[in-house]
Amino acid sequence: MNTLNRRARKTLLTAHVATSVSWLGADLVLVVLGAAALSGRAPDGLYPVAALIGDWLLLPLTVAIWLIGVANAVLTPWGLLTHWWVTVKLIVTTVMLGLVYLLLTPGLRQAAESGAELAREDRLNMVVAPGVSGALLIFLIALSVFKPWGRVRRAAPR
Ligand code: HEM
């Protein structure tokens, strides 16, 4: 399916890049908050802020990213399952979306409730989880720019 004119396609791509890199920004803020709380700086104040970012920003943002990403694929000649770089992005983004909903934001809420009482292992997780997510997002950005690996299936010979 390729139903977009040039201007509409660029508008959709702008929305896609803007939302996707916002996810990376939100992750980096969570790393800073988690690292500050890990080092003992006001965890009772920092974890509730991190939980707010998770609930008010990450949850709606990740769904928007997924939907706009899929729209970018199905409404352009790239297709959703036609090129490896798009297919891998779809898989990684879907897994990450699940982790945000099932692990990250519940963990942030738990941290907000526990504050300074949060176990050291869980405090470490509040840095490692957004850190790994940020690294994966940089990988996805590189994938989007380099567009490696070609087509999923070769075109049938004429
Ligand atoms: C459901 C997941 C995703 C799908 C299906 C998807 C699909 C696509 C497609 C098809 C394009 C090309 C659009 C066009 O040329 O008009 C694109 C561009 C792009 N995507 Fe994604 N994407 C997804 C997630 C992400 C994520 C999570 C990031 C960043 C962390 C990202 C970053 C980018 C960037 C930077 C471009 C612009 C590349 C360029 O114009 O050279 N995408 N994406």
**Largest sheet properties:** none
Q: Stretches where pLDDT falls below 50 for ≥5 residues?
A: none
Compressed to H and E, one letter per element, the order equals HHHH
User: Nearest-angstrom radius of gyration?
Assistant: 18 Å
In terms of quaternary structure, the protein is single chain
Give the overall shape: elongated
Secondary structure tally, helices = 4
* β-strand amount: under 5%
Alpha-beta classification: mainly alpha
Give structural notes.
This protein has helices at residues 6-38, 43-74, 84-114, 120-146. Helices cover 78% and strands 0% of the residues. α1 (6-38) packs antiparallel against α2 (43-74), α1 (6-38) runs antiparallel to α4 (120-146) and α3 packs antiparallel against α4. The radius of gyration is 18 Å and the shape is elongated. It has 158 residues and is mainly alpha-helical. The site of protoporphyrin IX containing FE has 22 residues, from α1, α2, α3 and α4. The site of protoporphyrin IX containing FE (HEM) has 22 residues, from α1, α2, α3 and α4. Keywords: Membrane, Transmembrane, Transmembrane helix. It comes from Catenuloplanes atrovinosus. The chain crosses the membrane at residues 12-36, 56-75, 82-104, 124-146.
